[in-house]
Amino acid sequence: MRTFPIFVSFEGKPPLVTGGGELAAVKTRLLLKRAPSVDVAAEHLVPELAKLAEAGLVALVPARPGIDQLRGRPLVIAATEDDEEDTRVSAIARALGVPVNVPDRPELCTFALPAIVDRGEVTVAIGTSAAAPVLAQRLRAWLERELHPRLDALAKLAGEFRSTVAERVPSGPPRRKFWEAVFEGAAAEAMLEGDEKKARGLIGTAIDEAAEAAPARGRVLLVGGGPGDPELLTMKAIRALKSADVILYDRLVGDGVLDHARREAELIPVGKAKGAHSMQQAEINALLVEHARAGKTVVRLKGGDPFIFGRGGEELDALRAEGIAVEIVPGVTAGIAAAASLQIPLTHRDVSHTVTFLSGHEAGGEDPSFEHLDLAALAAGKNTLLVYMGVSTAGVIAKKLLEAGFAPTLPVMAVENASRDDERRVLATIADLAASPERLGLKSPAVLIFGEVAGLPASGIVEDILALEEVKRRA
Ligand code: SAH
Question: How many helices (H) does the chain have, and how many strands (E)?
Answer without folding.
Answer: 18, 18
